[in-house]
Automatic annotation (TrEMBL):
Protein name: Uncharacterized protein (TIGR03083 family)
Lineage: superkingdom: Bacteria
Lineage: Bacteria, Bacillati, Actinomycetota, Actinomycetes, Micromonosporales
Gene Ontology annotations for the cellular component aspect, listed alphabetically: plasma membrane
Any GO MF annotation of the entry: metal ion binding
A Pfam family this chain is assigned to: MDMPI_N
PANTHER family to which the protein is assigned, alphabetical: CONSERVED PROTEIN
InterPro entries xrefs: DinB/YfiT-like, Maleyloyr_isom, MDMPI_metal-binding
Annotated ranges, domain Mycothiol-dependent maleylpyruvate isomerase metal-binding: 10-123
Length: 166
């Protein structure tokens, strides 16, 4: 998939996740035990803020700057807007750090954020009792590749303790 397509998917799924936040902020998230939709929104907000800092500075932050004022929806909206602005302002091939050594590009983060968002959009829909929007076939197939190649193949070799049998 091309970076533009990842950004399209990110936009659609972020909007749908926002609908779930509005519909059911205090509801428990069945696919994230112990979390409410508010906590799910805070998680996604933190992920967006972290990646925005990586894109802006070219480094992984020691800590994030203070969150903007406002409620959970305000924070989510601000983090999303900053993330997509940073992704749009950069060439997908521009070098930025990632956790996956073979791909140190802005495009990696566009892809990763599209997948992060679609998964949590589904979490939000389930919690809010909203009908689940279809995951586009191209994003779903790419997500399988991401899990198999980046998380399982790469991750199990580089962080074996995280994959150990308990």
């Amino acid at each position: 998939m091309r970076t533009e397509r990842f950004r399209e998917c990110l936009t659609a799924d972020a909007a749908r996740l926002r609908e779930a936040i509005v519909a059911a902020a205090p509801a428990p998230v069945p696919t994230c035990p112990g979390w409410t939709v508010t906590e799910l929104a805070d998680h996604v907000t933190q992920v967006y803020r972290h990646k925005t800092v990586v894109l802006r500075t070219g480094a992984f932050p020691e800590e994030l700057p203070p969150a903007p004022a406002g409620g959970v929806l305000d924070r989510y909206d601000a983090a999303y807007a900053e993330l997509v602005a940073e992704l749009a302002a950069r060439d997908p091939g521009e070098t930025v750090p990632t956790w996956y050594p073979p791909d140190q590009t802005v495009g990696f983060w566009a892809r990763r954020m599209a997948h992060e968002t679609v998964i949590h959009r589904v979490d939000g829909e389930l919690a809010a009792g909203l009908p689940r929007a279809r995951i586009p076939a191209d994003l779903a197939v790419d997500g399988v590749d991401e899990v198999l190649v980046r998380f399982l193949d790469h991750g199990s070799r580089h962080w074996p303790d995280d994959f150990a049998t308990r």
